[in-house]
């Protein structure tokens, strides 16, 4: 026990003496939290929108006004013909345009239906999908109005309106993306910092030769590893704390669940990551190698965590892979606890998985750390 | 002390890396309290052999005991009884002199009182009073090496292994370093030292010379010179190492 304390003391001294590392540990992650939480959003706004109005009727002008009124569209230009509009799309100055054909108003009143051309730049497929939904909504809202007007004028029997769904958004009523993103990004930075630091720490001692000096002492493997990892565990918990404070102060992210539960889970979770870092450092000889391997895993873990893209829409095999992704567990749990107020019972299955993961990972790490080669 | 007892006993010890025998069936004994010089050209296998004896590298075949413990099964017991100073300076550059001593004393399991006492002795002996609170990185190489040697003796080991301890050090510091070695030997510590300086070989009680993984000669410097009919260890070494 006393031996572990000597190691912990030494590690903390080295961490706080390293003037280059301190800002990387404490300032960069928080900048990341602030920047990413604001920038990483699925909301599609400021769509550059053009149109061709061959009809030039009051109906077509009203339809365009609907787009102008929407906060999602920047109606930039009226094109004389489709050729110019398509040219503008090619050049990338507009994201979408509407082609209103001649006799639009007349045909609409006569036949009650009229096709209208919608063109969307679909290089980013998911954004194009969202833009399509926006445009369809605006057109349909407008189109329904016309129908209603017509009904009143001709005074016919009220036709049943199409079925309208009234969505109720639970847990994040205002659909605030920051509320959704902040907890996830917090997970990211706690994970990245602890993985990189622990992964590189022991390799660094290999590089400078002090690990050999440690290996000729009678120190027990477990003592050395606990002493080595404990400081990074503290740093991980510290980062979570600072991150949660920032989330509250800057983003007003709700904290519906039990804070103690979140901390309890995080302390187990960090063990998984530290074990992983140590495992990596046991199989690498230089910090560079360790960095690349840690980076490789981090990228896969992040992209497959459900943080940016929903796991449900991944192919089956990828979904199975995500079962081995600790970041996925934590993203799910932090969202459950913070946004839904989930309790111990709700997170129990994932928490048990995390604990098992921690045991396996650290077991592997201790096993693969060899004082004698 | 167990004078005239063998503290290191090596019999046909080998280490293979694939087909290459870095250490090829070496056998020798080191007596308690002896200064044993372990010579050889670069790449002759000295460091590999030493790593097997200090328990951080498993031998491929052969037998060896260090301080009475087996190098295969009892490496951790060996480690309690030995000190080691590597070729590469291996104290922490970003810790102070004091912190390094405290740390290594701590992981060898010394009590706080023992550490404080050792530290005072050591700092005084090395004349490091003014730099105890300076980072080790700021010390000149010679001082660093002397400090590393002292740290390897902190837990009063029976045997201390020194791997080219005086590489790159000026002649005055080299002389002081050997005074420290003599002093430790006088206190009963067995010294196992590798070096490239043949004048240092003359200071050893006995010397072995390794060539291509094998021990080609082992005796006192005086007898070796007689046997090879030369005046200096330098010539002995050249005769052997050139084959």
Task: Explain this structure.
- The complex is a heterodimer of chains A (373) and B (243).
- In chain A, helix 7 (177-208) runs antiparallel to helix 13.
- In chain A, strands 2-1-3-4 form a 4-stranded mixed sheet, with helices on both faces.
- Chain A contains 14 helices and 4 strands.
- Mean pLDDT of chain A is 85; it is low at 150-161.
- Chain A has 2 domains: 9-40 and 173-368, no CATH class; 47-154, abc type-2 transporter like domain (abc type-2 transporter like fold, 3-Layer(aba) Sandwich), CATH 3.40.1710.
- Chain A has 373 residues and is α/β, with parallel strands linked by helices.
- By secondary structure, chain B is an alpha/beta fold.
- Helices cover 37% and strands 26% of the residues of chain B.
- Chain B contains 9 helices and 10 strands.
- Chain B has helices at 46-53, 75-81, 97-107, 112-126, 141-152, 171-186, 198-202, 221-227, 233-241; strands at 6-17, 20-31, 35-40, 61-66, 69-70, 82-85, 159-163, 190-194, 206-211, 214-219.
- In chain B, the strands form 2 sheets. Chain B has a 6-stranded mixed sheet, sandwiched between helices.
- The longest helix of chain B is centred in the C-terminal third of the chain and has 16 residues, at 171-186.
- The chains are: A alpha/beta (373), B alpha/beta (243).
- The A-B interface holds A 2-3, 5-7, 9-10, 13-14, 17-18, 208-210, 212-219, 371-373 and B 54-58, 75-77, 79-80, 82, 84, 86, 88-95, 99, 102-104, 106-109.
């Amino acid at each position: 026990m006393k031996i572990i304390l000597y190691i912990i003391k030494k590690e903390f001294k080295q961490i706080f003496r390293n003037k280059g590392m301190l800002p990387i540990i404490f300032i960069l992650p928080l900048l990341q939290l602030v920047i990413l939480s604001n920038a990483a959003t699925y909301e599609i706004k400021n769509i550059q929108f053009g149109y061709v109005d061959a009809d030039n009727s009051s109906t077509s002008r009203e339809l365009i006004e609907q787009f102008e009124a929407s906060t999602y569209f920047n109606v930039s230009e009226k094109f004389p013909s489709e050729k110019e509009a398509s040219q503008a799309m090619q050049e990338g100055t507009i994201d979408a345009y509407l082609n209103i054909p001649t006799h639009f108003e007349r045909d609409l009143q006569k036949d009650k239906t009229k096709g209208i051309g919608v063109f969307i730049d679909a290089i980013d497929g998911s954004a194009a999908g969202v833009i399509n939904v926006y445009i369809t909504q605006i057109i349909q809202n407008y189109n329904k109005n016309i129908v209603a007007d017509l009904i009143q004028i001709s005074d016919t029997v009220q036709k049943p309106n199409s079925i309208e769904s009234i969505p109720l958004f639970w847990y994040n009523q205002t659909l605030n993306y920051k509320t959704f993103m902040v907890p996830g990004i917090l997970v990211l930075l706690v994970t990245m910092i602890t993985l990189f630091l622990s992964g590189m720490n022991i390799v660094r001692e290999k590089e400078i030769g002090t690990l050999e000096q440690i290996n000729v002492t009678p120190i027990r493997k477990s003592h050395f590893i606990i002493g080595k990892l404990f400081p990074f565990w503290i740093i991980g918990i510290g980062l979570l704390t600072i991150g949660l404070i920032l989330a509250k102060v800057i983003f007003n992210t709700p904290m519906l669940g039990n804070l103690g539960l979140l901390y309890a889970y995080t302390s187990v979770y960090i063990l998984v990551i530290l074990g992983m870092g140590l495992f990596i450092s046991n199989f690498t000889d230089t910090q560079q190698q360790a960095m690349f391997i840690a980076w490789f895993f981090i990228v896969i873990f992040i992209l497959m965590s459900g943080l940016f893209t929903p796991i449900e829409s991944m192919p089956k095999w990828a979904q199975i892979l995500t079962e081995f992704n600790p970041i996925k567990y934590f993203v799910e749990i932090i969202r459950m606890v913070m946004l839904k107020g989930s309790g111990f019972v709700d997170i129990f299955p994932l928490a048990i998985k995390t604990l098992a993961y921690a045991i396996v990972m650290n077991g592997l790490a201790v096993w693969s750390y060899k004082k004698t080669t | 002390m167990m004078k005239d007892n063998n503290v290191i006993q090596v019999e046909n010890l080998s280490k293979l890396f694939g087909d290459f025998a870095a250490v090829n069936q070496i056998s020798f004994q080191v007596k308690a309290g002896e200064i044993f010089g372990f010579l050889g050209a670069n790449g002759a296998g000295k460091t590999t052999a030493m790593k097997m004896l200090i328990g951080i590298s498993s031998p491929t075949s052969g037998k060896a005991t260090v301080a009475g413990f087996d190098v295969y099964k009892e490496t951790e017991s060996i480690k309690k009884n030995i000190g080691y100073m590597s070729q590469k300076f291996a104290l922490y550059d970003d810790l102070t002199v004091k912190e390094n001593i405290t740390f290594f004393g701590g992981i060898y399991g010394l009590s706080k009182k023992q550490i404080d006492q050792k530290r005072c002795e050591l700092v005084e002996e090395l004349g490091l009073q003014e730099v105890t609170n300076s980072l080790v990185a700021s010390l000149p190489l010679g001082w660093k090496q002397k400090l590393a040697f002292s740290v390897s003796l902190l837990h009063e080991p029976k045997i201390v292994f020194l791997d080219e301890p005086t590489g790159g050090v000026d002649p005055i510091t080299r002389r002081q370093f050997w005074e420290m070695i003599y002093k430790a030997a006088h206190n009963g510590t067995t010294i196992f030292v590798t070096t490239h300086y043949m004048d240092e070989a003359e200071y050893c009680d006995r010397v072995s010379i390794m060539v291509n993984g094998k021990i080609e000669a082992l005796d006192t410097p005086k007898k070796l010179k007689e046997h090879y009919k030369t005046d200096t260890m330098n010539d002995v070494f050249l005769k052997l190492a050139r084959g």
